[in-house]
UniProtKB/TrEMBL annotation:
<keyword id="KW-0503">Monooxygenase</keyword>
<dbReference type="InterPro" id="IPR011008">
    <property type="entry name" value="Dimeric_a/b-barrel"/>
</dbReference>
<protein>
    <submittedName>
        <fullName>Antibiotic biosynthesis monooxygenase</fullName>
    </submittedName>
</protein>
<keyword id="KW-0560">Oxidoreductase</keyword>
<dbReference type="Pfam" id="PF03992">
    <property type="entry name" value="ABM"/>
</dbReference>
<dbReference type="InterPro" id="IPR007138">
    <property type="entry name" value="ABM_dom"/>
</dbReference>
<feature type="domain" description="ABM">
    <location>
        <begin position="2"/>
        <end position="94"/>
    </location>
</feature>
<dbReference type="GO" id="GO:0004497">
    <property type="term" value="F:monooxygenase activity"/>
</dbReference>
Length: 102
């Protein structure tokens, strides 16, 4: 398993709404086209209305590489910047968990 934890901070409320719409459209494509993407979850952060947290889990690094190569993912990566003031990315090395196998 290979994963990412990403925290985004949106510029303002309007940007947060637009970012959520972009993330939702991208998520639809990921669900429909990426069997190697095990989890792709977007969360609002309680008490921090401009922050979004992504938890992404891929079958392996090859599945992540395939995810990154998709046109809709590349479009998300380029369009998201107009809505954001900060991005933090942590690469995750899977140890154990429920509902997934390492």
């Amino acid at each position: 398993m290979f994963g990412l934890f990403v925290r985004f901070t949106c510029k303002d409320e309007a940007a947060a709404t637009a970012f959520d719409e972009l993330a939702a459209r991208t998520g639809e494509q990921i669900r429909a086209n990426e069997p190697g993407t095990v989890i792709y979850a977007v969360h609002r952060v309680d008490g921090r209305p401009l922050q979004r947290a992504f938890y992404e889990l891929y079958r392996d690094e090859a599945a992540f590489d395939e995810h990154e190569s998709k046109d809709y993912v590349r479009a998300f990566l380029s369009k998201r910047e107009r809505y954001l003031s900060a991005t933090e990315v942590d690469r995750l090395d899977f140890v154990s968990g429920k509902g997934v196998e390492g």
